[in-house]
Design goal:
single chain; 200 residues; alpha+beta; Aminopeptidase; seven-stranded mixed sheet; 7 strands; GNAT_dom; GNAT family N-acetyltransferase; Trichothecene_AcTrans
């Protein structure tokens, strides 16, 4: 694994980060259910992720590689609600807004509400051509170092079994049943990391 320069994203990069995430997540099984019309993915998902990235830029942490090949989006819990989220979701997702709401509800139900303050790794994305080179690991470790110094745990939803294995190597364990959503393919796994958990 080679060292990668990582920095904080800026407000002006909101759209670029959202498009990076949408490109990285293009083939996720859950995305095929969220927007069945694949020809609309390049329109819907960058705009959807921009809502989350913008919120994290204001209230959390968005870290990117200098070449914009990878990004990590962390949101502290608790944090403010996203303003006008339902209206923005309807504008961006159109006929599939109800599926996105159901997705949000499933994530909310799985998210542990009784474990105190923590950071939520809402999104970790690496462009397909750069995956498997340890870039995601560098992003994770950088923020974990900060969390461990603060004695702060972390939470995430692994998007499939491969990312579940990756996160397990970084001290995460399953903390709830996989998200209950009506699609075929890889499930999403809620996972928790106590502060200071050793990487495997």
């Amino acid at each position: 694994m080679t060292s990668t320069h990582i920095r904080q994203a800026t407000d002006g990069e909101e759209e670029d980060v959202a498009r990076l995430i949408a490109t990285s997540f293009r083939d996720l099984d859950v995305n095929q259910w969220l927007v069945p019309d694949r020809e609309r993915h390049d329109d819907v998902f960058p705009r959807f992720f921009r809502i989350i990235v913008g919120h994290a830029l204001r209230h959390g942490t968005v870290q990117v590689t200098e070449d914009m090949s990878a990004a990590a989006v962390w949101i502290p819990v608790p944090s403010p609600e996203i303003p006008d989220y339902d209206a923005r979701l309807l504008e961006v997702c159109g006929p599939w807004a109800d599926r996105f709401r159901r997705f949000d509800d499933a994530m909310h139900e799985a998210h542990p509400a009784d474990r105190g303050d923590h950071d939520h790794l809402a999104l970790l994305a690496v462009l397909p051509g750069r995956q498997g080179h340890g870039i995601g690991t560098e992003l994770i470790r950088l923020h974990h170092d900060e969390l461990d110094r603060a004695g702060r745990p972390a939470y995430l939803e692994a998007s499939n079994s491969a990312s579940r294995r990756l996160y397990a190597r970084h001290g995460y364990t399953d903390c709830a049943e996989p998200l209950d959503l009506p699609y075929e393919g890889e499930r999403m796994y809620p996972m928790w990391r106590p502060a200071g958990a050793a990487a495997g």
